[in-house]
Design a protein that fits this description.
alpha+beta, 2 domains, 3-stranded antiparallel beta sheet
Protein backbone atom coordinates (compact mmCIF):
# COMPACT_ATOMS: atom_id res chain seq x y z
CA UNK A 1 0.00 0.00 0.00
CA UNK A 2 1.38 3.43 -0.86
CA UNK A 3 1.13 6.26 1.64
CA UNK A 4 1.48 10.04 1.53
CA UNK A 5 5.13 11.00 1.17
CA UNK A 6 6.43 12.93 4.17
CA UNK A 7 10.17 13.49 3.66
CA UNK A 8 11.96 14.06 6.96
CA UNK A 9 15.24 15.24 5.50
CA UNK A 10 16.86 16.68 2.37
CA UNK A 11 15.84 14.95 -0.83
CA UNK A 12 17.18 14.69 -4.36
CA UNK A 13 13.84 15.79 -5.72
CA UNK A 14 11.50 18.66 -4.96
CA UNK A 15 8.58 17.80 -2.70
CA UNK A 16 6.24 20.45 -4.07
CA UNK A 17 2.73 19.26 -4.77
CA UNK A 18 0.33 20.09 -7.57
CA UNK A 19 -3.15 21.57 -7.04
CA UNK A 20 -4.82 18.16 -7.33
CA UNK A 21 -2.55 16.65 -4.67
CA UNK A 22 -3.21 19.56 -2.31
CA UNK A 23 -6.97 19.01 -2.70
CA UNK A 24 -6.68 15.30 -2.01
CA UNK A 25 -4.56 15.87 1.09
CA UNK A 26 -7.22 18.27 2.39
CA UNK A 27 -9.82 15.53 1.95
CA UNK A 28 -7.58 13.12 3.84
CA UNK A 29 -7.65 15.49 6.81
CA UNK A 30 -11.46 15.45 6.83
CA UNK A 31 -13.63 12.64 8.11
CA UNK A 32 -14.79 11.53 4.64
CA UNK A 33 -13.70 8.69 2.37
CA UNK A 34 -10.63 9.73 0.40
CA UNK A 35 -8.16 7.98 -1.90
CA UNK A 36 -4.64 7.05 -0.89
CA UNK A 37 -1.96 9.10 -2.58
CA UNK A 38 1.76 9.64 -2.94
CA UNK A 39 3.38 12.45 -4.87
CA UNK A 40 6.68 14.02 -5.85
CA UNK A 41 7.92 16.69 -8.24
CA UNK A 42 10.80 16.14 -10.62
CA UNK A 43 11.96 19.03 -12.82
CA UNK A 44 8.59 20.82 -12.53
CA UNK A 45 6.58 17.68 -13.44
CA UNK A 46 4.32 16.64 -10.55
CA UNK A 47 3.88 12.86 -10.38
CA UNK A 48 0.97 11.62 -8.26
CA UNK A 49 -0.40 8.15 -7.62
CA UNK A 50 -3.98 7.91 -6.35
CA UNK A 51 -5.96 4.77 -5.53
CA UNK A 52 -9.04 3.58 -3.70
CA UNK A 53 -10.45 0.13 -2.95
CA UNK A 54 -14.17 0.75 -2.47
CA UNK A 55 -17.25 2.18 -4.20
CA UNK A 56 -18.21 5.01 -1.83
CA UNK A 57 -16.15 8.01 -2.96
CA UNK A 58 -17.88 11.35 -3.38
CA UNK A 59 -17.13 13.39 -6.54
CA UNK A 60 -13.68 14.96 -6.40
CA UNK A 61 -13.42 18.76 -6.24
CA UNK A 62 -12.88 20.43 -9.61
CA UNK A 63 -9.22 20.45 -10.58
CA UNK A 64 -7.91 24.04 -10.44
CA UNK A 65 -7.23 25.45 -13.89
CA UNK A 66 -3.54 25.63 -14.78
CA UNK A 67 -1.32 26.25 -17.79
CA UNK A 68 -0.42 22.59 -17.96
CA UNK A 69 -1.33 19.21 -19.42
CA UNK A 70 -2.55 16.36 -17.26
CA UNK A 71 -1.46 12.89 -18.36
CA UNK A 72 -3.26 10.02 -16.60
CA UNK A 73 -2.57 6.30 -17.01
CA UNK A 74 -4.60 3.57 -15.33
CA UNK A 75 -2.61 1.01 -13.31
CA UNK A 76 -5.56 -1.40 -13.12
CA UNK A 77 -8.93 -1.98 -14.76
CA UNK A 78 -11.72 0.03 -13.22
CA UNK A 79 -15.41 -0.15 -13.90
CA UNK A 80 -17.03 3.22 -13.61
CA UNK A 81 -16.45 6.95 -13.35
CA UNK A 82 -18.01 10.17 -14.57
CA UNK A 83 -15.99 13.05 -16.03
CA UNK A 84 -17.01 16.69 -16.48
CA UNK A 85 -15.31 19.43 -18.48
CA UNK A 86 -16.46 22.96 -17.79
CA UNK A 87 -19.46 21.59 -15.89
CA UNK A 88 -20.56 19.42 -18.84
CA UNK A 89 -20.57 15.63 -18.53
CA UNK A 90 -18.22 14.37 -21.26
CA UNK A 91 -17.66 10.73 -20.29
CA UNK A 92 -19.33 8.00 -18.27
CA UNK A 93 -17.91 4.49 -18.08
CA UNK A 94 -14.75 2.62 -17.17
CA UNK A 95 -11.20 2.19 -18.42
CA UNK A 96 -8.87 -0.74 -18.96
CA UNK A 97 -5.44 -1.07 -17.42
CA UNK A 98 -3.03 1.02 -19.49
CA UNK A 99 -5.72 3.46 -20.64
CA UNK A 100 -4.27 6.91 -21.26
CA UNK A 101 -5.89 10.34 -21.15
CA UNK A 102 -4.25 13.70 -21.87
CA UNK A 103 -6.20 16.75 -20.70
CA UNK A 104 -5.66 20.48 -21.11
CA UNK A 105 -5.82 21.76 -17.54
CA UNK A 106 -6.83 25.25 -18.63
CA UNK A 107 -10.28 23.73 -18.79
CA UNK A 108 -12.33 22.94 -15.67
CA UNK A 109 -12.16 19.17 -15.05
CA UNK A 110 -13.95 17.20 -12.36
CA UNK A 111 -14.17 13.44 -11.82
CA UNK A 112 -16.31 11.05 -9.81
CA UNK A 113 -14.72 7.62 -9.34
CA UNK A 114 -17.55 5.16 -8.72
CA UNK A 115 -15.47 1.97 -8.38
CA UNK A 116 -12.00 0.94 -7.13
CA UNK A 117 -9.14 2.51 -9.11
CA UNK A 118 -5.39 3.03 -9.19
CA UNK A 119 -3.76 5.57 -11.48
CA UNK A 120 -0.67 7.67 -11.99
CA UNK A 121 -0.91 11.32 -13.05
CA UNK A 122 1.73 13.61 -14.56
CA UNK A 123 1.12 17.35 -14.23
CA UNK A 124 3.27 18.88 -17.02
CA UNK A 125 3.45 22.70 -17.17
CA UNK A 126 3.29 24.25 -20.63
CA UNK A 127 6.49 26.15 -19.86
CA UNK A 128 8.36 22.90 -19.17
CA UNK A 129 7.04 21.37 -22.38
CA UNK A 130 7.99 24.44 -24.40
CA UNK A 131 11.53 24.29 -22.98
CA UNK A 132 11.77 20.61 -23.92
CA UNK A 133 10.61 20.99 -27.54
CA UNK A 134 12.80 24.05 -27.98
CA UNK A 135 15.83 22.21 -26.59
CA UNK A 136 15.35 19.31 -29.01
CA UNK A 137 14.82 21.69 -31.93
CA UNK A 138 11.10 21.02 -32.42
CA UNK A 139 9.30 24.37 -31.91
CA UNK A 140 6.58 23.15 -34.31
CA UNK A 141 4.90 21.33 -31.42
CA UNK A 142 1.26 22.50 -31.21
CA UNK A 143 -0.34 20.24 -28.60
CA UNK A 144 -1.45 16.65 -28.00
CA UNK A 145 -4.11 14.57 -29.71
CA UNK A 146 -5.00 11.47 -27.70
CA UNK A 147 -8.30 9.87 -28.80
CA UNK A 148 -10.63 8.44 -26.14
CA UNK A 149 -10.02 4.75 -25.53
CA UNK A 150 -6.26 4.98 -26.14
CA UNK A 151 -4.09 2.45 -24.29
CA UNK A 152 -0.35 2.95 -24.08
CA UNK A 153 1.95 0.20 -22.83
CA UNK A 154 4.98 2.53 -22.93
CA UNK A 155 3.46 5.09 -20.54
CA UNK A 156 2.15 2.24 -18.38
CA UNK A 157 5.66 0.80 -18.19
CA UNK A 158 7.17 4.16 -17.25
CA UNK A 159 4.49 4.64 -14.60
CA UNK A 160 5.15 1.21 -13.11
CA UNK A 161 8.88 1.94 -13.05
CA UNK A 162 8.16 5.03 -10.94
CA UNK A 163 6.13 3.25 -8.25
CA UNK A 164 9.16 2.24 -6.09
CA UNK A 165 10.39 5.85 -6.26
CA UNK A 166 7.05 7.11 -4.94
CA UNK A 167 7.26 4.64 -2.05
CA UNK A 168 10.90 5.45 -1.22
CA UNK A 169 11.82 8.81 -2.80
CA UNK A 170 14.85 9.43 -0.61
CA UNK A 171 16.51 6.27 -1.92
CA UNK A 172 15.82 7.06 -5.58
CA UNK A 173 18.47 8.34 -7.98
CA UNK A 174 17.71 11.77 -9.43
CA UNK A 175 19.40 10.63 -12.64
CA UNK A 176 16.89 7.77 -12.91
CA UNK A 177 13.97 10.16 -12.42
CA UNK A 178 15.32 12.61 -14.99
CA UNK A 179 15.71 9.78 -17.52
CA UNK A 180 12.11 8.66 -16.93
CA UNK A 181 10.92 12.24 -17.47
CA UNK A 182 12.93 12.51 -20.69
CA UNK A 183 11.49 9.23 -21.96
CA UNK A 184 7.99 10.39 -21.01
CA UNK A 185 8.25 13.72 -22.84
CA UNK A 186 9.88 12.17 -25.90
CA UNK A 187 7.20 9.50 -26.20
CA UNK A 188 4.30 11.90 -25.61
CA UNK A 189 5.48 14.53 -28.10
CA UNK A 190 6.34 11.95 -30.76
CA UNK A 191 3.26 9.72 -30.36
CA UNK A 192 0.59 12.32 -29.56
CA UNK A 193 2.25 15.60 -30.57
CA UNK A 194 3.28 14.70 -34.11
CA UNK A 195 7.01 15.33 -33.60
CA UNK A 196 9.65 13.24 -35.31
CA UNK A 197 12.84 12.08 -33.57
CA UNK A 198 15.00 10.16 -36.05
CA UNK A 199 17.98 8.08 -34.93
CA UNK A 200 21.16 10.09 -35.23
CA UNK A 201 22.73 8.74 -38.40
CA UNK A 202 24.40 9.85 -41.59
CA UNK A 203 22.28 12.11 -43.74
CA UNK A 204 20.43 14.01 -41.00
CA UNK A 205 20.97 17.58 -39.88
CA UNK A 206 23.32 18.25 -36.98
CA UNK A 207 21.68 19.68 -33.84
CA UNK A 208 22.92 23.20 -34.61
CA UNK A 209 21.55 22.91 -38.15
CA UNK A 210 18.16 21.75 -36.80
CA UNK A 211 17.99 24.85 -34.60
CA UNK A 212 19.09 27.16 -37.41
CA UNK A 213 16.53 25.71 -39.81
CA UNK A 214 13.57 25.76 -37.41
CA UNK A 215 14.45 29.22 -36.10
CA UNK A 216 14.61 30.51 -39.68
CA UNK A 217 11.27 28.94 -40.58
CA UNK A 218 9.55 30.23 -37.43
CA UNK A 219 10.88 33.73 -38.14
CA UNK A 220 9.56 33.63 -41.71
CA UNK A 221 5.96 32.60 -41.07
CA UNK A 222 4.71 35.70 -42.87
CA UNK A 223 7.72 36.36 -45.11
CA UNK A 224 8.68 34.87 -48.46
CA UNK A 225 12.00 33.04 -48.74
CA UNK A 226 13.70 30.49 -50.98
CA UNK A 227 14.94 27.00 -50.16
CA UNK A 228 18.41 28.23 -51.13
CA UNK A 229 18.24 30.87 -48.38
CA UNK A 230 17.07 28.27 -45.86
CA UNK A 231 19.81 25.84 -46.88
CA UNK A 232 22.40 28.61 -46.62
CA UNK A 233 21.77 29.16 -42.90
CA UNK A 234 22.70 25.48 -42.43
CA UNK A 235 25.72 25.84 -44.75
CA UNK A 236 24.41 23.15 -47.10
CA UNK A 237 23.54 22.90 -50.76
CA UNK A 238 19.87 23.10 -51.61
CA UNK A 239 19.52 19.46 -52.72
CA UNK A 240 21.43 18.03 -49.75
CA UNK A 241 19.51 20.23 -47.33
CA UNK A 242 16.10 19.08 -48.60
CA UNK A 243 17.04 15.42 -48.21
CA UNK A 244 18.58 15.96 -44.78
CA UNK A 245 15.66 18.03 -43.52
CA UNK A 246 13.17 15.36 -44.51
CA UNK A 247 15.32 12.64 -42.96
CA UNK A 248 15.54 14.66 -39.73
CA UNK A 249 11.94 15.86 -39.33
CA UNK A 250 10.00 13.28 -41.32
CA UNK A 251 8.48 16.01 -43.50
CA UNK A 252 9.53 18.60 -46.08
CA UNK A 253 10.33 22.21 -45.06
CA UNK A 254 7.06 23.29 -46.69
CA UNK A 255 5.05 20.76 -44.66
CA UNK A 256 6.89 21.72 -41.46
CA UNK A 257 6.08 25.39 -42.01
CA UNK A 258 2.45 24.61 -42.84
CA UNK A 259 2.01 22.61 -39.61
CA UNK A 260 3.79 25.36 -37.67
CA UNK A 261 1.34 27.93 -39.07
CA UNK A 262 -1.61 25.76 -38.06
CA UNK A 263 -0.13 25.39 -34.56
CA UNK A 264 0.28 29.16 -34.32
CA UNK A 265 -3.31 29.59 -35.50
CA UNK A 266 -4.51 27.25 -32.75
CA UNK A 267 -2.82 29.43 -30.14
CA UNK A 268 -4.40 32.58 -31.57
CA UNK A 269 -7.81 30.91 -31.79
CA UNK A 270 -7.80 30.78 -28.00
CA UNK A 271 -8.24 34.57 -28.07
CA UNK A 272 -11.14 36.67 -29.30
CA UNK A 273 -9.52 37.60 -32.60
CA UNK A 274 -11.21 37.65 -36.03
CA UNK A 275 -10.37 34.67 -38.22
CA UNK A 276 -9.21 36.96 -41.01
CA UNK A 277 -6.70 38.62 -38.67
CA UNK A 278 -5.40 35.24 -37.47
CA UNK A 279 -5.01 34.06 -41.06
CA UNK A 280 -2.77 36.99 -42.02
CA UNK A 281 -0.73 36.79 -38.79
CA UNK A 282 -0.03 33.11 -39.45
CA UNK A 283 1.12 33.60 -43.02
CA UNK A 284 -1.97 32.42 -44.89
CA UNK A 285 -3.15 34.33 -47.94
CA UNK A 286 -6.58 34.96 -46.47
CA UNK A 287 -9.25 33.40 -44.22
CA UNK A 288 -10.43 30.89 -46.82
CA UNK A 289 -6.85 29.72 -47.39
CA UNK A 290 -6.39 29.20 -43.65
CA UNK A 291 -9.70 27.36 -43.36
CA UNK A 292 -8.77 24.97 -46.17
CA UNK A 293 -5.28 24.18 -44.83
CA UNK A 294 -6.35 24.11 -41.18
CA UNK A 295 -9.19 21.68 -41.96
CA UNK A 296 -6.84 19.35 -43.83
CA UNK A 297 -4.40 19.14 -40.91
CA UNK A 298 -6.66 19.49 -37.85
CA UNK A 299 -9.59 17.60 -39.43
CA UNK A 300 -12.00 20.39 -38.48
CA UNK A 301 -12.49 24.02 -39.40
CA UNK A 302 -10.89 26.84 -37.35
CA UNK A 303 -14.33 27.86 -36.08
CA UNK A 304 -15.19 24.34 -34.95
CA UNK A 305 -11.76 23.91 -33.34
CA UNK A 306 -12.16 27.21 -31.47
CA UNK A 307 -15.59 26.22 -30.16
CA UNK A 308 -14.33 22.87 -28.88
CA UNK A 309 -11.00 24.07 -27.43
CA UNK A 310 -11.77 27.56 -26.15
CA UNK A 311 -10.11 28.23 -22.79
CA UNK A 312 -12.54 28.56 -19.95
Amino acid sequence: MHKPVKPDGPSRFEAREGPLTEQLRQRLSEDVPAPRLSSMTVSDIVITRTSYDDFDLNPSPAIPCADAFGVIVQLMDFQSHRLWRGGELVYEGGHAKGALAITDLREGWQCHHRSPFDNLRFHIPFSHLRDFVSEVGRPDFAGFECPPGTTDDVILGLAQALLPALDAPLQTSRLFLDQINLALLTHLTQTYGGLHFPPRKKGVLAPWQERQATDFLAAHVTEAFTIAELAAVCQLSRSYFIKSFRQTFGRTPYRWLTEYRVGKAKEMLQKDLPLAEIAIACGFADQSHMTRVFSQIARQSPGAWRKHNRRL
